[in-house]
């Protein structure tokens, strides 16, 4: 699918001036939250922060190690505290882990203080993208396609709570960032 319009620097600047809170990217692993988030931050001339990177830095351990040692509930609690801190620090673009927005407390926190963008794409694209690296604890327990399909089904209702929904498909990251800006502009 080819994107018809390309926003001018002046249009992007106009949108950037209207954004009065952090933009938080949510969605399944592999939808492009980190990659697209960096492009979006660059376009908006703001900073980008990845929640998983911040958690690993704060814990001095990998996400996988935290999951293995303490379990998912412990991880989600720490994740929520990190997200709250990042929003308080007024970062421009924040990429969350795939399960963050599913946690009701974290979702309420994000919806109350940020613009939540649900990035979404088809299962084939997710399987292809997530197969590139072996750092996804939830995909180590079985067939990635089945796991991702199940996660998508179970998390869809939570992700649908985001103010904005953008389909990423297999579009170039810059095109997806443009779609996000247009969606933010329309929402504002």
TrEMBL record:
UniProt entry keywords in alphabetical sequence: Amino-acid biosynthesis, Aromatic amino acid biosynthesis, ATP-binding, Cytoplasm, Kinase, Magnesium, Metal-binding, Nucleotide-binding, Transferase
EC number: 2.7.1.71
CDD domains linked: SK
Record field: transmembrane: none
Positions that bind Mg(2+): 34
Binding site for substrate: 52, 76, 98, 155
Annotated localization: Cytoplasm
Cofactor binding description: Binds 1 Mg(2+) ion per subunit.
Catalysed reactions, semicolon-separated: shikimate + ATP = 3-phosphoshikimate + ADP + H(+)
GO function term, MF aspect, one: shikimate kinase activity
Pathway assigned in UniProt: Metabolic intermediate biosynthesis; chorismate biosynthesis; chorismate from D-erythrose 4-phosphate and phosphoenolpyruvate: step 5/7
Main enzyme class: transferase
UniProt: ATP binding residues: 30-35, 136
Cofactor: Mg(2+)
Top-level lineage group: Bacteria
Subunit structure, interactors included: Monomer.
Biological role: Catalyzes the specific phosphorylation of the 3-hydroxyl group of shikimic acid using ATP as a cosubstrate.
Recorded family membership: Belongs to the shikimate kinase family.
Identification of the protein by name: Shikimate kinase
């Amino acid at each position: 699918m080819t994107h018809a319009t390309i926003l001018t620097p002046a249009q992007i600047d106009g949108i950037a001036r209207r954004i009065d809170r952090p933009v938080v990217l949510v969605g399944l692993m592999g939808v492009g939250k980190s990659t697209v988030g960096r492009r979006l931050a660059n376009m908006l001339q703001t900073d980008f922060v990845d929640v998983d990177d911040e958690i690993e830095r704060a814990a001095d351990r990998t996400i996988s190690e935290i999951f293995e040692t303490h379990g998912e509930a412990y991880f989600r609690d720490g994740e929520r505290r990190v997200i709250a801190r990042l929003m308080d620090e007024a970062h421009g673009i924040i990429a969350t882990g795939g399960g963050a927005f599913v946690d009701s407390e974290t979702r309420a926190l994000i919806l109350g203080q940020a613009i939540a963008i649900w990035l979404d794409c088809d299962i084939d694209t997710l399987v292809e993208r997530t197969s590139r690296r072996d750092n996804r604890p939830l995909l180590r327990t079985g067939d990635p396609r089945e796991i991702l399909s199940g996660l998508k089904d179970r998390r869809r209702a939570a992700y649908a709570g985001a103010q904005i929904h953008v389909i990423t498909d297999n579009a170039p990251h810059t095109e997806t960032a443009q779609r996000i800006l247009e969606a933010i502009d329309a929402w504002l």
